[in-house]
Structures are given as structure tokens and as C-alpha cells.
Amino acid sequence: MNKETFLSELKRSLGRMPEGEKKDVLYDYEEHFRMGTAEGKTEEQVAASLGNPRLIGKSYAIDSLLEDHKEGGQVTAGSVVRAVFASISLTFFNLIFILGPFLGLVGVMIGLWATAISLPIAGVGAVLGPVAALIIPQWVSLGGISVFFWIFGGIGVAALGVLAVIGMYFLSRLFLKATAAYVMLNARIVTRRR
Question: What's the mean pLDDT in 57-68?
Fold first, then answer.
């Protein structure tokens, strides 16, 4: 593969990156070709030493999707999901090592969020149980348990639920950052970039 073919495949693989970033990447690889030919290598040898331009381009595209993460900013769920699926497109091998664990962990996160949200709802229900038993005693029974137990138990469960929701917020942010870091690492390993 010659320089022109390599650079055109690289440009096509960069996808919807901002034009300025595309130009920087293409300039860097043009520089690799200039330096390689100055050392007496052919364009084909330089291209072979650089690797697959499609994989390199997709790796840069993933980095671009997760640029906020690299700069210490906020990582969004949308950018992480797009980066995961862009990373999957790098190789079939990634389908096993990225998509499977990602979907499994997303399922765990959904389950934990459902639990965290249901706790405050259950606590409020327990607090309102004695009130409902007074208004419609034929439909609501406290089962012989003290009214104070229902009220204070409900307050405790609701408070635990609020703490669980706060904890899940921070766990979700950590999950997104860890996923973004793993996808970037994987893309660099596949494309042999540092």
C-alpha cells in the first residue's frame, strides 16, 4: 500500500471527527511517510510499519468520542456507548471482550438502579400504610404490627433508599469513566498505538 492509499483509508476511517483533528492526524502520518522515505524506506515499507489505516482511524475516532474523559471532563453515557460500539467495529475479537462484559455490567447497573429507586418508594408506602389503614380499613391491614413500627421503619427504608440513589449516581459515573478508559486502552492495543 502506498502513501496515498494509506492516507485516504485513514481519512475515511476517522469518521465524523472534527476537521481540525482529522487534519492533525493526517499531518502526523504524512510526517511518518516523509521521515521513512528520508531514511531510505519505500512508501510500502512505511505503510506496513504503521499498521492498518482503518484500525488506526477508528482508534482515533474512539479517542475523539471520549475526548472529554481525556481532559478530565464529564463523560456522557451516549459518548461511552458510541465508543463501545466503535471499538467493537475494530475486530470480531472485541465482540467477545467488550460487548459481552459491557452488556452484563449494564444489566447489573440497571438492576442496582431499580433497587435504589424502589427503596424510597417502599419507605413512603410503609409510612402511608397506617394512614391508609385509618381511611380504608377494609382494604388495608397492618397485620397486627405497631403503627410506630410502620412509620419509623418506613422512614428508615426511605432514608436508606435516598442514600442508595446517591451512591448509585457516583457508581454510575465511575462505571462510565472506567468503561471509557477500557475502550481507549483496547483501541490502542488493537492498533498498536501508544
Answer: 71
Q: Where are the domains of the chain?
A: 91-191
Mapping DSSP onto H, E and C, the string for the chain reads CCHHHHHHHHHHHCCCCCHHHHHHHHHHHHHHHHHHHHCCCCHHHHHHHHCCHHHHHHHHHHHHHCHHHHCCCCCCHHHHHHHHHHHHCCCHHHHHHHHHHHHHHHHHHHHHHHHHHHHHHHHHHHHHHHHHHHHCCCCCCCCCCCHHHHHHHHHHHHHHHHHHHHHHHHHHHHHHHHHHHHHHHHHHHHHCCC
Which residue in 59, 25, 29 sits closest to 46, CA to CA? 29
What mean pLDDT is reported for the chain?
83
Q: Note the pLDDT tens digit of each residue in 3-55.
A: 888 888 888 888 777 788 888 888 888 988 889 889 898 888 888 888 888 87
What average pLDDT does the segment 69-84 reach? 64
